[in-house]
């Protein structure tokens, strides 16, 4: 039986080395499914886009600097931009506004993309009714949709008045597009003594103070007076304000001041009418009163203006009609007020509607804007998630979500399916979009499983046989040779151990059931001619199991190392042993025939030992360990002593290690939370080549296998497996996408790779492609 060890939770592969022709040219392997324990991953799905922390509810596509990208909106309240060629994120995620009172961030409802003046932009609709604009090249905010209030002439300039989602009234010069002024918390418009004024409400205090400002200059025209008492006398409601040197009294029906002599009477008589907190006075007249905890009330000369000229605080049109065209307004980050034509459906760039800015004549005369209905097929429909369907390049098609949550490509004319369903999502599909990647039409689907999936719409493939297996997540995996046939051994959250023939995919024996707790590490060996599987779980106990007979071999072995974090098998003086990595900062050697430790613990690490692998160096068995102390160390298993000093270079915890032969020399591979993978020559104790970068998931599984007669490092990277040629440091072949994150990897004979993901197991074979 092989000494191969799965890489899970820091457990790594013990390599048997590479053939003599290791320097032969490397074929470009295309990893394909040989058989699967459950549904075969759909080969049309190119790669997962992982990063959202909640269900993805909207997707759109665009071209940025010649690269196809996807824009996604999620219930985690973020908008993210993805490079469809690599699957990586182009920018940091962006969000809508956060309410300062509730500290809640507005959720993302839908997204859309367009080309504006030659630059790709994205629009996102949020739960607070805001429509934000993002520059896809930089990932920065480029503005927001604003609601048109009116077009007017102000101090000789033609201006547009628009209301932002946050309640800010924007005043923009229609000729230059520049913002003239901005008034936060705008509540209404009026004409006062021949001047256009805007009323704002300060929401930061309990009194909700009303302020009146000149619309053109921003000058504050009003003064706010504190009300000390409100009374009703002879049918009139009077407010008494604190004033110097004497209090002032205001008639709250007319806004007129009351004779000062009545102040004493008001203070001494009448019926109290509480609730009024402030009075706003402009040019000697009261125009508004603040109410305790409620919206202010306008009185006197502004009462009529309140009815005819007040701003609409509820949802309003984001579009208007200009010269018969539906347009939208945005206030950009630099203060520019832009007008967008959102009805031009004749020009398209890469399947996206072209949007251009509207030019205004040099005379400054501009036609009046009037509120108008949104047109069918315009940008607002697309932002609201009611856009046109996709095309596969050869004719219009529809992507439909079926009752079983699969996505089906249908011919738009006939309604018939085009190819088999796009299976793979494990939850409801929320949205779909289409684009072109490397000349191929693809679809991007968003599901409630928190992932995006990219599908090749023209590729066809055959599903492998569906096979029953574990009913829980596969938590550990290893490979072996049983009676001359390669097998895979899996342990799962259903507390069972299963053995399956890698050639036929059939079970070899009945499962071993009744395991105690979850298996987090596992290694296979041979003791006295019989196969043995050693497992470790969440504690410090090792279990020895007969995978064929379904028996437990002897009593559990207590390591006294705290939690056993990793295992590796080896042969020491002809005896099968297992090396354990412990949370107590030590490693230990165990004789599998007796269940007893060999020698003293291996000490030297200054933090918990998270990974271990074994190999041969100059004919002697050695172990390689990785630790939270950021070092890799080499141990002579015969003497129990450390060889040389620690291998340093990682800047964060080492999470896994593996060993291999490269050009006939034993090497170690280490992976760290610093997102790098490093290669070490064990003979010289030096690092070889540059670190492999871009590994954002440091805790994924890692194992050494063979492809094209060369040692290849396979790394689980979320919902994908990546391959690296250890001799050249370059990626070897295609990334292989999975429907769920890779939980464990095992190297089988003939270069096959066993992948455990969720409750499923798949065997991959490299083939020249």
UniProtKB/TrEMBL annotation:
Q: Which InterPro entries does the record match to this protein?
A: N2O_reductase_N, Quinoprotein_ADH-like_sf, WD40/YVTN_repeat-like_dom_sf, WD40_PAC1, WD40_repeat_CS, WD40_rpt
The family database entries (SMART domains) matched by this protein are listed as: WD40 (SM00320)
Which key words are in the record? Repeat, WD repeat
Where are the annotated WD repeats, by residue?
A: 49-92, 329-350, 422-457, 557-600, 602-645, 647-690
Which residue spans traverse the membrane?
Answer: none
Q: Where is this region: Disordered?
A: 1-29
Repeat among the record's keywords?
yes
Official protein name in the record: WD40 repeat domain-containing protein
- The organism encoding this protein is Streptomyces nojiriensis
């Amino acid at each position: 039986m092989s000494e191969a060890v799965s890489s899970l939770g820091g457990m790594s592969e013990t390599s048997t080395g590479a053939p003599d022709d290791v320097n032969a040219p490397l074929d470009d392997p295309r990893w394909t499914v040989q058989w699967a324990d459950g549904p075969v991953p759909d080969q049309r799905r190119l790669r997962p886009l992982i990063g959202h922390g909640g269900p993805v509810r909207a997707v759109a596509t665009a071209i940025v600097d010649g690269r196809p990208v996807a824009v996604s909106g999620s219930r985690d309240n973020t908008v993210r931009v993805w490079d469809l060629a690599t699957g990586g994120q182009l920018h940091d995620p962006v969000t809508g506004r956060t309410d300062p009172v509730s500290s809640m961030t507005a959720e993302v409802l839908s997204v859309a993309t367009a080309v504006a003046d030659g630059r790709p932009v994205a629009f996102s609709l949020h739960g607070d009714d805001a429509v934000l604009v993002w520059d896809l090249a930089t990932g920065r905010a480029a503005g927001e949709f604003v609601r048109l209030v009116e077009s007017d002439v102000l101090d000789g300039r033609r201006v547009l008045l628009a209301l932002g989602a946050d309640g800010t009234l924007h005043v923009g010069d229609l000729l230059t597009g520049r913002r003239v002024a901005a008034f936060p918390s705008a509540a209404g418009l009026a004409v006062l003594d021949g001047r256009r004024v805007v009323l704002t409400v300060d929401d930061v205090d309990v009194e909700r103070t009303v302020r009146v400002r000149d619309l053109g200059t921003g000058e504050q025209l009003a003064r706010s007076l504190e009300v000390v008492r409100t009374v009703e006398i002879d049918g009139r409601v009077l407010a008494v304000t604190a004033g110097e040197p004497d209090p002032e009294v205001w008639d709250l029906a007319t806004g007129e001041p009351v004779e000062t002599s009545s102040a004493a009477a008001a203070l001494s008589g009448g019926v109290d009418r509480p609730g009024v907190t402030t009075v706003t006075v402009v040019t000697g007249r009261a125009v508004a009163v603040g109410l305790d905890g409620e919206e202010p009330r306008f009185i006197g000369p502004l009462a009529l203006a309140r009815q005819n000229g007040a701003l609409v605080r509820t949802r309003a049109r984001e579009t208007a009609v200009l010269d018969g065209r539906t347009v939208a307004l945005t206030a950009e980050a630099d203060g520019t007020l832009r007008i967008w034509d959102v009805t031009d459906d004749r020009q398209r760039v890469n399947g996206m509607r072209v949007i251009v800015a509207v030019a205004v004549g040099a005379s400054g005369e501009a036609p009046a804007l009037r509120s108008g209905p949104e047109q069918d097929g315009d940008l607002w429909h697309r932002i609201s998630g009611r856009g046109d369907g996709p095309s596969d390049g050869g004719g219009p098609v529809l992507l439909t979500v079926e009752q079983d949550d699969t996505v089906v490509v249908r011919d738009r004319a006939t309604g018939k399916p085009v190819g088999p369903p796009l299976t793979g999502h494990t939850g409801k599909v929320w949205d779909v979009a289409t684009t072109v990647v490397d000349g191929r039409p693809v679809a991007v689907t968003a599901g409630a499983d928190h992932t995006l999936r990219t599908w090749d719409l023209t590729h066809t493939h055959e599903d492998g046989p569906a096979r029953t297996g574990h009913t829980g997540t596969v938590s550990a995996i290893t490979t072996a040779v049983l009676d001359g046939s390669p097998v895979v051994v899996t342990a799962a959250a259903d507390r069972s151990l299963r053995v399956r023939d890698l050639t036929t995919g059939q079970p070899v024996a009945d499962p071993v059931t009744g395991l105690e707790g979850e298996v987090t590490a596992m290694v296979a060996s041979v003791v006295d001619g019989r196969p043995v599987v050693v497992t470790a779980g969440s504690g410090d106990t090792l279990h020895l199991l007969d995978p064929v007979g379904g028996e437990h071999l002897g009593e559990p072995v207590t390591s006294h190392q705290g939690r056993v974090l990793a295992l590796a098998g080896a042969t020491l003086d002809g005896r099968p042993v297992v090396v354990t990595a412990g949370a107590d900062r030590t490693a230990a050697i165990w004789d599998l025939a007796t269940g007893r430790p060999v020698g003293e613990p291996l000490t030297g690490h200054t933090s918990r030992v998270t990974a271990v692998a074994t190999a041969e160096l100059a004919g002697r068995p050695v172990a390689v360990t990785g630790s939270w102390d950021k070092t890799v160390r080499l141990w002579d298993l015969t003497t129990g002593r450390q060889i040389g000093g620690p291998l340093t270079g990682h800047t964060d915890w080492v999470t896994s290690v593996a060993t291999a032969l490269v050009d006939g020399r034993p090497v170690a591979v280490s992976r760290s939370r610093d997102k790098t993978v490093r290669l070490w020559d064990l003979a010289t104790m030096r690092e070889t080549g540059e670190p492999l970068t871009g590994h954002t998931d440091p805790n994924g599984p890692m194992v050494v296998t063979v492809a094209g007669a060369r040692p290849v490092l396979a790394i689980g990277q979320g919902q994908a497996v990546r391959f690296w040629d250890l001799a050249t440091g370059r990626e070897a072949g295609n990334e292989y996408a999975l429907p769920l994150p890779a939980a464990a990897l095992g190297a089988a004979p003939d270069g096959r790779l066993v992948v455990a993901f969720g409750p499923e197991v798949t065997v991959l074979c490299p083939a020249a492609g």
